[in-house]
Amino acid sequence: MKIIKVYAYAYTFLGGKMRKVLEFIGICFLLIITFYLTDKTVKLANKKDPLMIKIKENEKHLNKNCIEGYKTKDGVILSTPGKEVDIYESYSNMENKIYDESKIVYKEIKCKVSMENSKDDIIISASKINKELAIFIIIDDINNFKKIKNKINNNYSLLINGKTLKDNIDYIEKLSKEGYVINYINDNKDDFILFDQYKNKINTSNICVTYLDDDMSYCKEKGYTRIKTKYYYTSNIYNNVLSNLENGSFYILRSNEKTLEEIGALSKYLKAKNIDIMGISVLLK
Fold it and tell me: Distance between CA atoms of 148 and 135, rounded to whole angstroms?
């Protein structure tokens, strides 16, 4: 009320131009108040709506707490973000006011250990909660890889060094257009510089991957995400991967005859066990 009295007093005694300014301010103020009261009224009415009641009844079992990752001396194991139901957005999203769980809208609950705050660290695992993992195939033998490609899809992540990328740029560009993501397999600084020069021609997520005891400092300097894994296999890949299955882990295979022989059986086994092979960019989110 005091604000209204001050406004009326000012309007009475001020000149023409200032009156117009005050009229504009007054209109804006009334619009804000109207919007606020309308919003409050709608929310109050919605609380008694059967659909709103149903959403709230299911909210507790749909909400998921953040499961924190952690840092070790070797690197970071990423968290599993939580989620909570956005009640009013979910209500608005349901057509004909009929409850449909597939139309629920969530707000993400961020964790302390995430990709955002681990940019200076080496990632050694994605979240351990979901039945998901990444399989990298190094493109080192182009002819063998072309045969392997017939047995995989673009959920497999590809790795290449700078020299091989340069020598086969037309083919790698074609792979990129097919949806494959190609990242760098750690070699040496000069080779990495070569990869970095050609990266704009391919589909890459700016990731350096190694199975060696190397901090890949030159990758860090260029802002690349660094991944390290102990699961690197050149033969007997089926048994080796199955013996070391871990949610969120990274596996590196070479594009050789052994991988060609066993990659199909490995893919079928993982699918039968409902274990998803995820593109590395998706897995790290």
Answer: 13
The C-alpha atoms of residue 268 and residue 12 are separated, in whole angstroms, by: 82
The amino acid that residue 262 corresponds to is: E
Range of the domain at 89: 49-118
Average pLDDT, the chain: 87
Give the pLDDT confidence of 41-51 residue by residue, as tens digits: 345 445 678 88
Are residues 160 and 273 both part of a single domain?
Answer: yes
**Cβ–Cβ < 8 Å for 209, 229:** yes
What is the predicted pLDDT for the residue at 23?
A: 58
Token readout for 241 is 């991967």
Say whether both 91 and 77 belong to one domain.
yes
Same domain, yes or no: 150 and 214: yes
Can you give the pTM of this predicted structure?
0.79
Q: Residue 157 pairs with which residues in a beta bridge?
A: 136
Bridge-based pairing of strands 82-85 and 106-109 is: antiparallel
Q: Could you tell me which of 124, 110, 128 has the C-alpha nearest to residue 72?
A: 124
pLDDT in tens, 29-80: 555 655 444 444 345 445 678 888 899 999 989 999 999 999 999 999 999 9
Helices 257-272 + 142-149 axis angle, to 10: 30
The tens digit of pLDDT for each residue in 132-149 reads 999 999 999 999 999 999
Among 127, 130, 138, 112, which Cα is nearest to 284's?
127
248 and 142 inside one domain? yes
**According to the model, what pLDDT value does residue 38 have?**
43
Q: How far apart are CA 221 and CA 240, in angstroms?
A: 34
